[in-house]
Each structure stands twice: as C-alpha cells, then as structure tokens.
Design a protein that fits this description.
about 350 residues; alpha/beta; seven-stranded mixed sheet; six-stranded parallel sheet; 17 strands; about 25% strand; globular; binds zinc ion
Length: about 350
C-alpha cells in the first residue's frame, strides 16, 4: 500500500504529529488530490484546540488546499486526473434539504461538511474530499499563490461582492492581516473608495501599496470618528478577531451602512440607537462554496491580486503554525508538500 505523510492533531491542544498513513482511495462522488500547497488559517485553531463541537480525532487540519487531481471516485464527471483544483472551508452539502433547495448551501441541515474538520484536510501529501468541495484553479496562479485565496481570498471577495456597496462608495477594511491585506486589494479593484484600518503608523505604507485611498491608525486615531469625517462607510469589513476593535469601528458606518463580520471574535458592542436612527446593520458572512472560490480565483487573475505569503515545508508545520498564531506573519503562512 503506498504511503503518505500527514500532519495530524490527535487530541485537543495536542501538538502536530507528522505520521505516515496509507493513501486513501476516493469513494463514489469523491476526488483525491496530490496536495501542492495548503494555507494556514486562524480557524485551524478550532482543530488544534479541539474547539469545534463533535470534532473527531485524530484530524488533519487545512482548508486552503491546492493540488492535482490524482484519482476520482465513481460518478465524478466534472474533474479529471491531472487537473489543478483547490478546496476551501465549504467541503460539501446534501443538495436535498430545504436550505440547500433555497441555495443556502452553507446552511445545509443534513450533511454540511467542512474541509479539515468533517474530514481530513490539506496538511498532507494527499487529500480526499467530495467533488463538491473543489474549484478549478487557473494556470496563471502558482499553488502557493492560489492556496490562501481558497479561504482568506474567497471570504473577503465574497463578502464585498455581496455587500450593499456600489462603485465609488466608501468601504473600510478593518485589520490588515491575512484576510485584510487581500480585502483592501479586492475593495480597490472593485471600485470602492477604500480605507485600511490597522494598529500603528507602520502599517500605512503597506495599506497604500495595496491601493488604499486612506489609512486610519486605530492606536492614534478613533476609527469611527475618522470614517465619519470621510462621510461614513457604506460597508465595513471586519477581518480582526478582536471584539473591542470591532466595537471601536462600527460607529464609522454612514446611513444605511453595513458592518460585515468575517473575523471570529467573541463579542462586540453596538448601539441600538445608532443602528436604528441610521438604518444601519450588522451582518455575518460565511466564506462561500467552490463556485464562489472559482470566481475569486478568476477575479484575482483578472485584477492582479495576490496574497503575500511566508512559505514553509510540511515538516516544519509546528513552526509555521506558531508563526500564524504570533500574528507577525506577512501575511499568510503557506505549507508546501515536497
Ligand atoms: Zn479559513
Ligand atoms: Zn442540505
């Protein structure tokens, strides 16, 4: 039986273990890929720390996966051996339940699957997933370039294109990390007057380089006041995982403005009077499906949008994960498989 190396977590709070396993075979409706690259997302801590309810160990994390189709199960017609594909957070759905029949695949009530949580993810040399999980990856993107777009990219791109902002509107991206540095680029290329918000004056050159029209240093300035001086934001995309930072920025919404939460913070404070008097709203956004990922990849090629990455080989997974957790990575950490 041919073997593969994977980086698994075998108990909540456990360390990464590099182990050999048999290469799994794809069942009906599944696709096996030879993984080329996998981004490390903050949400992988849900596996590492065992915070996802019902998670079964051992588990291989990773939901920013890019690789080459290596085998397909019975009934798979949309992918062929040798094609390059990617998988993100959304790993599958039933297609039959009421939410699925309404097109709300993220809300599937029967068989919602999440890559690297419901089944083993991309911190591995091979991965098997439902065909529904995979997007076609354009040749213009290298595996390392494409991987972070499968979660950080799709989440910011899809939130922006589903927001109420129209060309020329003021849009703020809160946080300039793995998600935020992509969010600024997408917002600029979609034609929004774009504001980057982060802590410290040292982030301003980066924000400007990514195309931001304005920068707000949330340590030195009140982000809500500064956004109001610019006329108030139609949309604020909150990529941070800190509820206090979200609370401090929500007051920057203009009339009919929408605060879109894509960072997993514990709690945030909003003023009901501020919301109702300006018909403002707070909305969460779920990343998207494989079809949304394909759109993200195509738009990234069209607009020249790329993630800035720090690359580590799979065997240095512990160090790479630590780097992501430190918050010091510039800006996405990506594993490559030898
Ligand atoms: Zn993610
Ligand atoms: Zn369903």
């Amino acid at each position: 039986m041919p073997k593969m190396r994977v980086a698994q977590i075998s108990k909540p709070g456990g360390n990464f273990e590099l182990v050999e396993r048999d290469i799994p075979s794809p069942a009906a409706g599944q696709v096996r890929i030879k993984v080329q690259a996998c981004g490390i997302c903050h949400s992988d801590s849900l596996v590492k720390e065992g915070h996802w309810p019902g998670l079964q160990f051992p588990r291989v994390p990773g939901h920013e996966v890019v690789g080459i189709v290596d085998a397909v199960g019975a009934g798979v017609t949309q992918f062929k051996t040798g094609e390059r594909v990617g998988a993100g957070w959304h790993g599958g759905h039933c297609g039959q339940c009421d939410p699925c029949r309404n097109g709300d695949f993220f809300g599937c009530s029967v068989a919602l699957q999440i890559t690297g949580i419901s089944f083993d993810g991309g911190y591995a040399e091979y991965m098997v997933a439902p065909a529904l999980a995979f997007a076609h990856v354009p040749d213009d993107l290298s595996p390392v370039e494409a991987a972070p777009l499968m979660c950080a990219g799709i989440t910011t791109y899809n939130a922006l294109r589903n927001s109420p902002a129209r060309a020329g509107d003021l849009v703020a991206i809160l946080g300039l990390g793995g998600l935020g540095h992509l969010g600024v680029q997408y917002a600029v290329k979609m034609g929004f007057k774009t504001v980057g918000i982060a802590r410290g004056a040292d982030k301003e050159p980066l924000a400007r380089k990514l195309g931001a029209h304005h920068y707000i240093d949330s340590q030195a300035q009140n982000p809500a006041t500064e956004l109001q001086k610019l006329g108030g934001a139609k949309v604020i995309i909150a990529t941070v995982t800190n509820g206090d930072a979200m609370s401090a920025a929500q007051g920057g919404l203009g009339l009919n403005g929408m605060f879109m939460v894509i960072g997993a913070a514990q709690a945030m404070t909003v003023s009901p009077i501020f919301l109702l008097s300006g018909r403002r709203s707070v909305k969460g956004w779920y990343s998207g499906t494989a079809a949304d990922s394909q759109d993200t990849l195509k738009f990234s090629v069209l607009s020249g949008i790329r993630s800035m990455n720090e690359v580590y080989p799979l065997e240095r997974v512990a160090e790479a994960y630590e780097r992501m957790e430190s918050g010091k990575a510039r800006f996405r950490v990506v594993l490559t498989m030898g």
